[in-house]
């Protein structure tokens, strides 16, 4: 029987009821890293709307891992307690929920987007970000290069946050290793200019991510899926830029170390040429990773129509379809898509009169 967007997908100890995933989308509404009513409604409505898996916005593993002072986090027990009712409500609707854990690295310490998203200096409550190598920041400052002790601390922060995610009841964990943030800063030679064991060769530049994956896989329950979002390409002409072949190679390594799903995204350091952005523009990257490594893949990027999303699954290009902006516009897209595709899905009882 041919697969469709509404075919179940087993994932370690989980079974997703369909292959439609709410892609992480930052909301900038979490002072002190605490989620509240906004997240309950924002994520809960997409669960009511029929998505199989909801991935939270990127949530920092430490205060210094944030991009702004309004990013969600999971570095303390108060944040665990705040996430629990959100997680419970999503699961009550038949959806699964993963938390995306993240460290912004040298891209950290910015004002709220409504305040210009400019660098927030330490004197105003920000911090001097750290990354793999010194890189220029706003206002003429330069990010600090992480020491080996810093690297060990951040790995421990990821493990501690992952264990808090288990405590909060999350079904799965995704590492945000894309879009110019800390893990991506390490594996891309555009940013990583180190000469120690975490810089230089391909194996050295991926070491930080791989060691974090190893630590998480050892700490997490065996049945809990571990996902990773990658920037499979840097979208840059720089000769040091990360290329698709690198993304395929890294995906194979991650699979070997217990990662269950790779979502193939791109970019993060330079503006993307607008002519290169079109419907399904990143799907071929997920297709190549799936074909060459056998890992379960997620496709993302300008996917907005039911038939378009369904074809990605039915044609075997990817195993999951992640949607962001379309699910901001329409939390009930999955219900609408099932109807448009003449495929069965469960309508929440209070909403059945509308269908």
TrEMBL record:
Span of domain NADH:flavin oxidoreductase/NADH oxidase N-terminal: 4-341
Gene Ontology terms, MF aspect: FMN binding; NADP binding; NADPH dehydrogenase activity
InterPro entries: Aldolase_TIM (IPR013785), OxRdtase_FMN_N (IPR001155), YqjM-like (IPR044152)
Domain of life assignment: Bacteria
Keyword Flavoprotein: yes
Signal peptide extent: none
Gene3D superfamilies, per database record: Aldolase class I
Cofactor(s) required, per the database record: FMN
Keywords associated with the record: Flavoprotein, FMN, NADP, Oxidoreductase
The name this protein goes by in its record: NADH:flavin oxidoreductase/NADH oxidase
């Amino acid at each position: 029987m041919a697969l469709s967007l509404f075919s179940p997908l087993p994932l370690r100890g989980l079974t997703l009821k369909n292959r439609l995933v709410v892609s992480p989308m930052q909301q900038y509404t979490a002072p002190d890293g605490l989620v509240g009513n906004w997240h309950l409604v924002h994520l809960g409505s997409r669960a009511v709307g029929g998505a199989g898996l909801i991935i939270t916005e990127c949530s920092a593993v430490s205060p210094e891992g944030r991009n702004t002072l309004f990013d969600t986090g999971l570095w303390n027990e108060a944040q665990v307690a705040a996430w629990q009712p959100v997680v419970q409500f999503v699961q009550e609707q038949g959806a699964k929920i993963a938390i995306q854990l993240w460290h912004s690295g040298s891209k950290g310490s910015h004002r709220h987007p409504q305040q210009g998203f400019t660098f927030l200096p330490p004197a105003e409550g920000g911090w001097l970000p750290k990354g793999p190598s010194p890189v220029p920041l706003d206002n003429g400052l330069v990010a600090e290069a992480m020491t080996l002790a810093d690297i060990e601390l951040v790995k421990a922060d990821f493990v501690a946050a992952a264990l808090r995610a288990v405590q909060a009841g999350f079904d799965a964990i995704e590492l945000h290793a894309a879009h110019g943030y800390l893990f991506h800063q390490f594996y891309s030679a555009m940013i990583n200019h180190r000469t120690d064991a975490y810089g230089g060769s391909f194996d050295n530049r991926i070491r930080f991510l791989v060691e974090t994956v190893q630590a998480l896989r050892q700490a997490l329950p065996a049945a809990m899926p571990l996902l990773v979002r990658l920037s499979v390409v840097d979208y840059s002409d720089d000769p040091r830029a990360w290329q698709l072949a690198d993304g395929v190679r890294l995906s194979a390594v991650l699979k070997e170390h217990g990662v269950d799903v790779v979502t193939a995204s791109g970019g993060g350091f330079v503006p993307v040429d607008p002519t290169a952005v079109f419907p399904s523009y990143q799907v071929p990257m997920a297709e190549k990773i799936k074909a060459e490594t056998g890992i379960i893949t997620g496709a993302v990027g300008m996917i907005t129509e039911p038939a378009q999303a369904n074809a990605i699954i039915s044609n075997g290009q990817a195993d999951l379809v992640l949607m962001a902006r379309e699910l901001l516009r329409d939390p009930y897209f999955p219900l609408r898509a099932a109807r448009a595709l003449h495929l069965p899905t469960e309508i929440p009882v209070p909403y059945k009169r509308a269908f």
